[in-house]
């Protein structure tokens, strides 16, 4: 973790964090509401990706009876819609906690692109992940590259999926429904429903790609970095493996 005052805000470290790190090996970073949202959100995304894939590429009909006696695809759609509402409501709760949680809770919603120090540390992180740096830096919150990825894949990506998903849901709910009143305008930007379906489906692969990379990086950092990663999102405490500032 950089000690220069110009770098303090570049990677989400406050003066209080620096004082804590200097006298203890762990810092309480992620509060309970944020951690609960993280795991519920992850589960909802998994359900949405699996059911969304089958909605886009339906499985073969199960020849166990007449079509009127089966509801397989109906259950798939129900699970997708239910997980979608969990994702949307949870995301609203996450926005709320960005205002009332600690300063780490706000990292998901902004990128300090105007700070040169931030981009220098992004470059260092890219070099670290490419095995070009011998040792990583220490961070209390998200490292700069993780913050950038979270913003584009989660903040913007999930927002896009909620808006397009609700617009598609509004088709079934029909005019006059709350979904149609709030999101029916989206169809005017895509001209037809099929194009909107395609964009929503591509958004699924966008987030799925992030999830694969996210799991790999989290496990890799737990092993190779100088602080805990996976356990931090369970306990809320960031544990450090050395007592050096940088």
- What name goes with the CATH superfamily? Transmembrane di-heme cytochromes, Chain C
> Can you name the CATH architecture?
Up-down Bundle
> Any idea of the CATH class?
Mainly Alpha
Order of helices and strands: HHEHHHHHHHHE
Poorly predicted parts? 1-10
Q: Give the number of domains.
A: 1
Question: What number is the mean pLDDT?
Answer: 87
Which structural class do you get from the secondary structure elements?
mainly alpha
Evaluate the radius of gyration. 21 Å
* Approximate helicity band: 55-70%
What is the 3D form? elongated
Strand content: under 5%
Distance between the termini: 4 Å
Q: For the report, how would you describe the main beta sheet?
A: 2 strands, antiparallel
Look up the CATH topology: Fumarate Reductase Cytochrome B subunit
- How do the strands of the widest beta sheet line up side by side? 1-2
Topology, number of strands: 2
- Give the helix tally: 10
Task: Please outline what is shown here.
The protein contains ten helices and two strands; from the N terminus they run ααβααααααααβ. It has helices at residues 5-8, 15-23, 32-56, 72-100, 116-129, 144-173, 178-183, 187-190, 193-224, 232-235, and strands spanning 26-28, 237-239. Helix 3 (32-56) runs antiparallel to helix 4 and helix 4 packs across helix 6 (144-173).
């Amino acid at each position: 973790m950089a000690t220069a005052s110009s770098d303090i805000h570049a990677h989400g470290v406050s003066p209080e964090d620096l004082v804590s790190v200097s006298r203890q090996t762990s810092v309480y970073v992620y509060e309970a509401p944020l951690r609960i949202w993280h795991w519920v959100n992850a589960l909802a995304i998994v359900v949405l990706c699996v059911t969304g894939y089958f909605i886009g590429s339906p499985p073969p009909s199960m020849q166990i009876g007449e079509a009127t006696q089966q509801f397989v695809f109906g259950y798939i759609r129900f699970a997708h819609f239910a997980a979608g509402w969990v994702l949307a409501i949870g995301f609203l709760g996450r926005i709320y906690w960005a205002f009332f949680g600690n300063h780490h809770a706000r990292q998901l919603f902004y990128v300090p692109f105007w700070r040169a120090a931030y981009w220098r540390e992004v470059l260092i992180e890219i070099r670290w992940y490419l095995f070009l740096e011998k040792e990583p830096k220490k961070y209390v919150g998200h490292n700069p590259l993780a913050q950038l990825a979270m913003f584009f894949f989660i903040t913007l990506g999930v927002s896009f999926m909620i808006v397009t998903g609700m617009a598609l849901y509004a088709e079934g709910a029909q005019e006059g429904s709350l979904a149609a009143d709030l999101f029916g305008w989206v169809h005017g930007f895509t001209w037809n429903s099929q194009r909107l379906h395609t964009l929503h489906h591509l958004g699924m692969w966008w987030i799925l790609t992030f999830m694969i990379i996210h799991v790999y990086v989290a496990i890799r950092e737990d092993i190779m970095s100088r602080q805990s990663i996976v356990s931090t999102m369970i306990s809320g405490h960031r544990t450090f493996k050395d007592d050096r500032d940088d």
